[in-house]
Amino acid sequence: MSHSLGVRQAQKQKTRQALLDAALGLLEEQSLSSLGLREVTRSVGVAPTAFYRHFRDMGELGVALVEEALGSLHVMVRAILAEQDGAEERIDRTVAVVQQHVRHHPLHIRFVARERHGGVRDVRLAIAGELDRFAEEVAAALKSQPVSEGWRDDDVRMLAELYVDRLVTTAAALLDAEADGAEGAAEQVVRVARRQLRLISVGRRHWLAEGRGKGDTP
User: How far apart are CA 175 and CA 180, in angstroms?
Assistant: First the structure.
């Protein structure tokens, strides 16, 4: 009996992943709000009623795609920020990680970039929640670095949000550059991203000297 349950569970998981993969492929050219349930199930080759064994609605499927898209990036970037190398090295490695992630998961990145301000509320909230957790993790890593000594927690969080926003923007720009195919386009995005992050890093080193970390209004 337990073997039969295991087989059924494995098949259920396989079908669930097939629905996610099919939806992701279909979303390359359209938004989630315009994608129909029947379109997804037809692509997988299952009856529309089978969809509801895995997801309540298309919004719940979209939330699962958000978790797929952003979950692994959290771990990679957090690990880099936790290292104690210099700021230049961390910036270079972080941008390289984002570039690699875009190359390996272009459909996920396009989905997040499109739906971050899209028409499905649950998905917008899921993306905002993932990015909020991302910022919390980055803030914890930044707080542990010596340069953050004396910083207020809300200022460290603000800094983390700046980094996260730049990384998300860079990922979307890299995706467009890769799709455009123009020679040197991706390299230009990488150069700009590194300069932007270095500018943030320079501002970080002078923040307390300007009195901003102690509660003054910019």
Answer: 9
